């Protein structure tokens, strides 16, 4: 038994564990109620993908790890779903690629901002950005546009998981390289990303960390080659085909 009363060899274990974490996130004031709906959408795509990391997603996760290692100022953006699902894994990824962690909410309230920052600190984050909110993403309404000037505002590479398409587009319009994690290959977020990762965040983040740890210390030419050989449109096509055909 683990954090839910269900044996780990249950065929729906991963999916039920994910639901339990999101439910818990809502109860703790971390995840928004809309986060439950977003989770349901994600689950449907994951079911069609066979609840596995397909090879094109693994290549995207490797390219993302290389891109993060090459970055001068990488930032991992965390919303209410991400915090509920993968807080310790985000802390591990940040350590592996030397990235900042910033809470950045679609439905921003100070209460949720603080609850998420506290939750991340409980899971080992020593610094959490997002609360200063002295920067702005242009072309977005006030609350949704808030970022830290020395966090996402100053980042050259940003990981944006489970993001609303509008905001993902506005972020991509800035001079930043955007890595998106989203199970829907047709979403605007995935379509606007330099590196779209079509995988469940509960698998994607630990896999990115594994790749980063393996690539750590590689020459920048090697890392640049991995990034250059990755084609976003191929990854999106492969994911859509896997979802449509089940192959
Ligand atoms: O915490 P907040 O206020 O920042 O709000 C977060 C949500 C997720 C509610 C907000 O950003 C939102 O409404 O997002 P959307 O527009 O529903 O988009 C979420 C996308 O993430 C959808 O395309 C889902 O398919 C996808 N998704 C959901 N769960 C997962 C996922 N992708 C990867 N892993 C998941 N577990």
Overview of this protein structure:
The protein has 247 residues and is of the alpha/beta class. The chain has a single domain (55-245), classed as 3-Layer(aba) Sandwich (Rossmann fold). It contains eleven helices and seven strands. It has helices spanning 13-27, 33-48, 55-70, 80-97, 110-122, 142-145, 165-173, 188-192, 201-215, 220-229, 232-245; strands at residues 74-78, 100-103, 135-136, 146-147, 157-161, 177-181, 195-197. α1 (13-27) packs antiparallel against α2 (33-48). Bound molecules: ligand PTJ. The site of ligand PTJ has 25 residues, from α2 and α4.
Structure summary:
With 247 residues, this protein is α/β, with parallel strands linked by helices. The chain has helices at 13-27, 33-48, 55-70, 80-97, 110-122, 142-145, 165-173, 188-192, 201-215, 220-229, 232-245; strands at 74-78, 100-103, 135-136, 146-147, 157-161, 177-181, 195-197. The chain has a single domain (55-245), classed as Rossmann fold (3-Layer(aba) Sandwich).
- Work out the radius of gyration: 17 Å
Tell me the major beta sheet.
5 strands, parallel
- Number of contiguous helices: 11
Residues in β-strands, percent: 5-15%
Give the ordered list of helices and strands: HHHEHEHEHEEHEHEHHH
Tell me, what is the CATH class? Alpha Beta
Total domain count = 1
Q: Please mark out the parts with pLDDT under 50 across 5 or more consecutive residues, or reply none.
A: none
CATH architecture: 3-Layer(aba) Sandwich
* CATH fold label: Rossmann fold
């Amino acid at each position: 038994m683990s954090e839910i009363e269900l044996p780990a060899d249950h065929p729906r274990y991963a999916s039920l564990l994910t639901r339990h974490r999101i439910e818990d996130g809502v109860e703790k004031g971390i995840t928004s109620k809309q986060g439950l709906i977003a989770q349901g959408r994600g689950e449907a795509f994951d079911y069609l993908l066979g609840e596995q990391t397909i090879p094109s997603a693994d290549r995207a996760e490797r390219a993302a790890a290389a891109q993060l290692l090459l970055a001068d100022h990488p930032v991992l953006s965390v919303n209410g779903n991400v915090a509920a699902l993968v807080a310790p894994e985000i802390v591990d990824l940040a350590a592996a690629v030397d990235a900042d962690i910033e809470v950045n909410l679609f439905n921003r309230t100070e209460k949720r901002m603080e609850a998420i920052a506290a939750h991340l600190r409980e899971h080992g984050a020593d610094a959490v950005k997002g609360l200063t909110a002295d920067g702005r993403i242009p072309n977005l309404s006030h609350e949704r546009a808030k970022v830290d000037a020395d966090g996402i505002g100053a980042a050259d590479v940003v990981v944006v998981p489970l993001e609303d398409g509008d905001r993902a587009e506005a972020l991509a319009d800035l001079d930043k390289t955007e890595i998106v994690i989203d199970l829907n290959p047709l979403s605007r977020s995935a379509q606007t990303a330099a590196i779209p990762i079509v995988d469940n965040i509960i698998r994607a983040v630990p896999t990115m960390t594994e790749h980063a740890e393996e690539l750590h210390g590689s020459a920048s030419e090697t890392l640049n080659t991995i990034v250059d050989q990755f084609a976003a449109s191929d990854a999106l096509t492969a994911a859509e085909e896997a979802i449509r055909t089940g192959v």
